[in-house]
């Protein structure tokens, strides 16, 4: 989905949920869309439950980052690059942007 399509879908899903008082089960890999729409998330990795929780906590979970961004949940203290240089890691996990500006989580 393009950013515009994802924003439109998230708006439509939240409106339907609120107007019709529905529970919606979403199966999706588009992390910003999931974070925008969902109140609670279950993360599967190859069919096995990896973790569950609120979107903000899930986005910072080391195993989720490893499964969906590559790498491993644990890294050596001073990994080396292919050219022998030391690799620097950010102190914080990456931020996945939310669809609507100013939105802090998936609640409407």
From TrEMBL:
Gene3D superfamilies: P-loop containing nucleotide triphosphate hydrolases
Keyword tags: ATP-binding, Nucleotide-binding, Transport
Molecular functions (GO terms): ATP binding
Chain intervals for the UniProt region annotation (Disordered): 74-108
Residues of the Branched-chain amino acid ATP-binding cassette transporter C-terminal domain: 49-73
Record keyword Translocase present: no
Protein's UniProt keywords contain Transport: yes
GO cellular component, as recorded: plasma membrane
Organism superkingdom: Bacteria
Family annotation (InterPro entries): ABC_AA/LPS_Transport (IPR051120), BCA_ABC_TP_C (IPR032823), P-loop_NTPase (IPR027417)
Record-given protein name: Branched-chain amino acid ATP-binding cassette transporter C-terminal domain-containing protein
Source organism of the structure: Glycomyces artemisiae
